[in-house]
Amino acid sequence: MTWEDIAADKKARIDKSIPDEWRIGVQGQDDSVMDVPAKSGILSSEEIDITNSSAVDLVAKLASGQLKSVDVTLAFCKRAALAHQLLNCALEFFPELALAQAKELDAYYEKNQKPIGPLHGLPISLKDQFRIKGLETSMGYVAWIGKYDEEDSILVTLLRKAGAVFYVKTSVPQSLMVCETVNNIIGRTVNPRNKNWSCGGSSGGEGAIVGFRGGIIGVGTDIGGSIRVPSAFNFLYGLRPSHGRMPYAKMANSMEGQETVHSVCGPICHSIPDMKLFVTSVLKEEPWKYDSKVIPMPWRQSEEDIITSKLKSGGLTLGFYDCDGNVTPHPPILRGIETVVSTLKKHGHTVIPWKPYKHDFAVNLINGIYASDGGTDVFSTLAASGEPAIPNFKDLINPSLPKIDMNELWSVHLQKWAYQNSYLEQWRLREAELGREIDAFIAPITPTAAVRHNQFKYYGYASTINLLDWTSVVVPVTFADKALDMKKEGYEALNELDGTVQEEYDPEAYHGAPVAVQIVGRRLTEERTMAIAHEIGRLLGNEITP
Amino acid sequence: MTWEDIAADKKARIDKSIPDEWRIGVQGQDDSVMDVPAKSGILSSEEIDITNSSAVDLVAKLASGQLKSVDVTLAFCKRAALAHQLLNCALEFFPELALAQAKELDAYYEKNQKPIGPLHGLPISLKDQFRIKGLETSMGYVAWIGKYDEEDSILVTLLRKAGAVFYVKTSVPQSLMVCETVNNIIGRTVNPRNKNWSCGGSSGGEGAIVGFRGGIIGVGTDIGGSIRVPSAFNFLYGLRPSHGRMPYAKMANSMEGQETVHSVCGPICHSIPDMKLFVTSVLKEEPWKYDSKVIPMPWRQSEEDIITSKLKSGGLTLGFYDCDGNVTPHPPILRGIETVVSTLKKHGHTVIPWKPYKHDFAVNLINGIYASDGGTDVFSTLAASGEPAIPNFKDLINPSLPKIDMNELWSVHLQKWAYQNSYLEQWRLREAELGREIDAFIAPITPTAAVRHNQFKYYGYASTINLLDWTSVVVPVTFADKALDMKKEGYEALNELDGTVQEEYDPEAYHGAPVAVQIVGRRLTEERTMAIAHEIGRLLGNEITP
Fold it and tell me: Where is substrate annotated to bind (chains A, B) (predicted)?
């Protein structure tokens, strides 16, 4: 078989996993598909209500017996089936397995009259890096099709223990190292709010399915923006925890074993309370007893409470920047930052300019790390099937770079460490000047609102945070608006890339595209940073209250 | 100048740093020098008392004004001067700077009537990897002599903030990758209890000086036993914390930037209360705000309290092994393990056999990691001055091994991670069988009691724990005894190395040599593991009570 045959067969198998009764006919010409679920007639009004709920509400109703897992699971399976037909977002779809698992959980509840764990009966969608015994993890590589997993990833094991139900594994870009979601197996995944926009990547399938509410909490991974970009492009909350907070063991990955910058797992969801539900549920399972890279650090309520008490008196102190000095964001993103800053100030918080510290150095360093094996890992996987590389690939993995050697790597490690420490010093110095703690800073995630296809060019706003390994929480802010976000006239480019990116801004084409910011705290500050993000979302009116 | 000239000049400068009034004449022929301080007449009886105290007592008296830092510092400077003359343990000795620092602290106390921090006025000795502004850090390399440090290491900065006084930087083996302390600058450092025994290494100067009470708390580093071996050989407590607990930024190191197995800092001291004083004092300074590799994890009293409450009811559950399957320990070490096990059982604790999990694999893997650059880093540093390699060097850094490439390194990372996770699984399975938590395990540190010179051959008992990155606390147990520890007749060797090691056991030569065990907890379990070590030391009668 040619690689095309193998890919076509896999695609056909995914399509066949959708039962006929969940199939929709030919769609209209609307760019947005957000209203299809309500109009399709495939979901009952109860199922629409379930899929429009919060995860916190659902687990409460599942735990009290008000809802059955089979009903919740069926609702999400149906909506996910619509999502795949409309957005092309699934690499594995297995409603039968999911419903069987849900039935078992309902039986458990029936017998014990209590939930099995904090996620009892809740469907969770997974990026196609997570292994589930018996299923394929192609991760967008044709060469990996047909290899069936012999065990679960550790996070899958723990989510299962907590009561989660699995029903779908979502699409990724070939290699994972691109922030749009395209592969040679199923092609491109698109944004539910507008098919002409990217859903982001590499956890793009998660962004699309959760944005469409075919999923309530999705799990992605992030080594250079791959959780944050899809969250931002789909008006969702997202958490890139610091390395060592969430388990990654037994997952598939690109450049597996590369540890200079770690990929991390985290949730993509509709609110901070849902995010907290996910994180606390995983931590309750003591992941550090399964995955040596996880730090034995349970949820620290006392850290969250520090922020809560600052909200009650004194307020938060936050830094912000709207340009990293490399690429100036488009007008909607600048307005997004300004909206967050002015909203916070209006509510009595202190918001001060934050000077990005050598982000040009950081971006160069991390791009070198991504390419430190000269692309050997990725290109040998492509060669194994003969499939070609997807477009824009060279943005992150440049095969013309040579593999670096051991002593060069050690020098990179020292540069990374020194950079991290210097940035920490900047933070301390600013705090000393102010005479108070700076709780986090507010920054862009990408230079663009949900980007038009094939126009994602600059990863630096996200990837610098990966190099620092700081905690980042995505907060959705607003939508691009052609009436407010004019193209800059006579813009003087900082450099060629900046000029190209700015040139591509088109108020008409971006109109309505989601705009988000990231809230960045120091390493392993998930509790505080999530609490800050919650408050910002609340002030913006984009957050449910707990 | 030849390398010999440069080394001789440095050695002469160290010698010259000792004032005439602290010089001792020709010594007798005794193997042990432990009684010299009391007999020398150089220290007053008050100074003998000070240097024989615990650090906990000293900081209490310094904090209450009962002692002045100048007096405490002078006492330790004098005793350290004796130590260097007798044991050859210092690479930098700077009593004048120390006394000036002590005077400032006394003035601070006088003015504010309170200590500057929890270590106010306490002298701390440092391995010659720590940088102090204005001093040299040769680290045993001739090529590095004459380079004066422009800033302090982060741990020095934080200890200084906590009130510590610095007066000596102690000797190390050239390259640090050997567990005896020999370099081409000052030669060999010996054991204060018997000059024919090694003081251990690579933090051997710390072991010797603290063992001799020329230091009260010394700071070493450990990448394959370098804190634990000198602690064991000098009847001291030692902590190899997990990576990320103590700051390492801005220190000198061998193979700097190698991050597959991290070297870590930790204290070598006379008791667990002194160890806790050191660790809590450092953590109070929030090292994670200075060094990005440090985890934001303050001292967790609640973790210590879990052990305390087990001691009050139910007792501890501990595993133990006396052989890792690679090299059988000498009879004194086997008796040391047996002593700990039987003592614990007698006091109602549960002690069960622990099956070492693939330690042969672990030892091979970590040895490959030490040599992953084919010795480039170390040998180029030797070449820079022309000095030859010290003996036994090839045990850990084998220059005949080729440098590995990036994809091979990634494969090593995956093997390490899988090994760590499998060992965690073994731990979970044993706990499931038992139906209770296993708090830690007891294991040898080396196959020998304080080893005779040039006979240190096997690092595996220590280095396997480095590969796992588990917390290890050294507890001194007993002394080799020719009447109890007979040579095994007709021993059948497990392999060639095992045969050689066992053959070298000589009851007469080892008589009186310190015997220790390590207490090993999972990653980042310093509070619990120290509390367990404290109880074991207490039951053995080797531990002061707090």
Answer: 176, 202, 223-226
Please give the CATH number for the structural domain made up of B302-540: 3.90.1300.10
Answer yes or no: B114 catalytic: no
Taking residues A93-108, report their average pLDDT: 98
Answer whether A259 sits within 8 Å of B424, measured CB to CB: no
List the strands of the sheet with B217-222, edge to edge.
B90-93, B165-170, B123-127, B217-222, B264-269, B237-240, B471-479, B514-521, B440-443, B317-320, B350-353
> Residue B532, annotated ligand binder?
no
Strands B350-353 and B264-269: unpaired
Active site includes A171? no
d(CA B344, CA B340): 6
Please tell me which residue in B202, B254, B271, B372 is annotated as part of the active site. B202
Pick from B247, B208, B22: nearest CA to B127: B208
Phi, then psi, of A295 in degrees rounded to 5: -80, 135
Coil, strand or helix at B2: coil
Q: Is the peptide bond before A202 cis (omega within 30 degrees of 0)?
A: yes
Beta-carbon-side half-sphere exposure of residue A511 (alpha carbons within 13 Å) = 8
User: Which residues in chain A have Cβ-Cβ distances shorter than 8 Å to B412?
Assistant: 257
Q: In this structure, are strands B123-127 and B217-222 parallel, antiparallel, or unpaired?
A: parallel
The end-to-end CA distance of chain A, in Å, is: 53
Could A406 and B376 be called an inter-chain contact, meaning their C-beta atoms sit closer than 8 Å? Answer: yes
Q: Is A226 a catalytic residue?
A: yes
Interface test with A, best of B152, B285, B377, B407 (most A CBs within 10 A): B407
Check the annotation: does B540 bind a ligand.
Answer: no
B362 vs chain A: nearest CA distance in angstroms?
15
| Cα gap B253→B402, rounded to integer Å | 22
User: CA-to-CA distance for B181 and B207, rounded, in angstroms?
Assistant: 10
Q: Do B289 and A428 touch (CB under 8 A)?
A: yes
Q: Taking Cα atoms as reference points, which of B206, B144, B125, B218 lies closest to residue B171? A: B206
* Chain A CB contacts of B430 below 8 Å: none
Quote the longest CA-to-CA distance of chain B: 70
State the Cα–Cα distance between residues B265 and A471, nearest whole angstrom.
26
Parse chain B into domains and list their residue ranges: 3-23+33-252+260-289, 302-540
In tens, the pLDDT along A313-357 reads 999 999 999 999 999 999 999 999 999 999 999 999 999 999 999
Q: Which CATH number is associated with domain A3-23+33-252+260-289?
A: 3.90.1300.10
Same fold, B3-23+33-252+260-289 and B302-540: yes
On chain A, the residues whose CB falls within 8 A of the CB of B293 are 417
Q: How far is B256 from chain A (nearest CA, A)?
A: 7
Tell me which of A10, A78, A127, A416 is the catalytic residue. A127
- Asked whether the beta carbons of A290 and A395 are under 8 A apart, the reply is no
| pTM beyond 0.95, yes or no | yes
Q: Contact at 8 Å (CB) between B74 and B99?
A: yes
What whole-number distance in Å separates Cα of residue B329 and Cα of residue B337?
A: 10
Question: Smallest CA–CA separation between B398 and chain A, in Å?
Answer: 16
Backbone φ and ψ of B539, nearest 5°: -65, -35
pLDDT of residue A13: 98
List CB contacts (< 8 A) between B523 and chain A. Answer: 288, 292, 295-296
CB contact under 8 A, A424 and B292: yes
Whether residue A497 contacts residue A483, with contact meaning beta carbons closer than 8 Å, is answered with no
Which of A53, A153, A198, A226 is catalytic? The answer is: A226
Q: CB-based contacts of A64: which residues, under 8 Å, 6+ apart?
A: none
Q: Does B365 touch chain A (CB under 8 A)?
A: no
- Classify each residue of B160-198 as buried b or exposed e, where b means 16 or more C-beta atoms within 10 Å of its C-beta: bebbbbbbbbbbbbbbbbbbbbbbbbbebbbbbbbbebb
